[in-house]
Design brief:
Number of domains: 3
Radius of gyration: 25 Å
Order of helices and strands: HHHHHHHEEHHEEEHEHEHHHEE
Number of helices: 14
Structural class: alpha+beta
Helix content: 40-55%
Largest sheet: 7 strands, mixed
Shape: elongated
Strand content: 15-25%
Length: about 300
């Protein structure tokens, strides 16, 4: 989540993205734009309620879903770290649960808390009906018991609902695997370019498992994100079975081809020879370097190259 947020997602958390000066006195926005922002944040809150809160009910002040919402809003608006996230909420009118002497000291100094912004109410950061934010150590303790799998599933559901509510009917995704050297793991991810968000991120063990893992997860991916009409990938995914699965589901694909993949490249040259009127273009630089990267191929439900 700690990536620059795209315009559609930024619009969903727009109130938090503005500075205090830009917030025009923190007055709730009127009209369709403000209502859409509130709906997006309430939807986020509803999905994060599915994350199990393993704290004891005794002495619990802050709801887990409210704290998680605050962290998500902070990350999406560039506030990396709990301290910055707390400062964001305080700057928009959330109060701290100070003791009596501290509150009196603030009153003597003339420190006035601004009127709370509406988005604090939308995400549920409330204590006794008033927007309130926990301290740094409190936030660490609150989030210590959550399971990453539950949080990941909740965020997937929210992004899926967000894409539908924003009427993004067709979007492009890229699939790729990366090694996490620090953790000794290999993960497979799908990145949606239209909203600049990772919608699938799973451990696959090692690089050779990428293709089989992606084939197994493909039905779930297409059901969860029906607008995912084009998938891009490197030569690892230029596989006939995978391409046929995508064709059967009415999806398009764009996969890169290497010259060292058997006779696949030669078959593609022959197939597309009528379009390119001869030998497919290869740059002089690539020929001089002896590069094995030659071309890319596309496919669609209406026909195209068969990998």
């Amino acid at each position: 989540m700690a990536v620059p947020v795209a315009a559609p997602v930024a619009a969903a958390v727009g109130p938090a993205a503005r500075s205090v000066e830009e917030d025009k006195g923190n007055q709730p926005k009127e009209g369709e734009e403000g209502e859409a922002e509130g709906l997006a944040l309430r939807s986020l809150s509803d999905h994060l309620r599915t994350v199990t809160d393993r704290r004891s009910a005794h002495g619990k002040v802050y709801e887990l879903h409210g704290v998680l919402c605050l962290v998500v809003v902070g990350l999406l608006t560039g506030h990396v770290g709990f301290s910055q996230t707390i400062a964001l909420a305080v700057g928009h009118g959330a109060r701290r649960r100070y003791n009596g002497p501290k509150r009196a000291q603030m009153k003597r100094k003339g420190i006035v808390r601004p009127e709370p912004s509406r988005w604090l109410y939308d995400i549920g950061m409330l204590w006794r009906g008033d927007p309130t934010v926990p301290g740094l150590q409190q936030m660490i303790r609150i989030l210590a018991g959550i399971k990453p799998v539950e949080l990941q599933e909740a965020m997937r559901g929210w992004v899926s609902d967000l894409l539908q509510s924003l009427q993004v009917r067709q979007y492009v995704g890229s699939v790729d695997g990366k090694a996490l050297r620090a953790g000794g793991k290999h993960v497979l991810s799908v990145f949606v370019h239209d909203v600049e968000q990772v919608v699938m991120h799973e451990e696959v063990g090692e690089k050779k498992n990428e293709l089989s893992a992606f084939r197994n997860r493909l039905p779930w991916l297409l059901d969860r994100y029906p607008g995912l009409w084009l998938l891009c990938g490197d030569a690892m995914f230029a596989n006939q079975t995978l391409c046929q699965l995508l064709n059967n589901r009415g999806r398009h694909w764009l996969f890169q081809i290497k010259a060292n993949q058997g006779n696949l490249f030669e078959k593609l040259e022959l197939y597309f020879s009528g379009i390119v009127h001869g030998v497919p273009h290869v740059s002089d630089a690539a020929e001089k370097k002896g590069s094995t990267w030659k071309s890319a191929t596309t496919g669609s439900p209406r026909g195209g190259a068969k990998c």
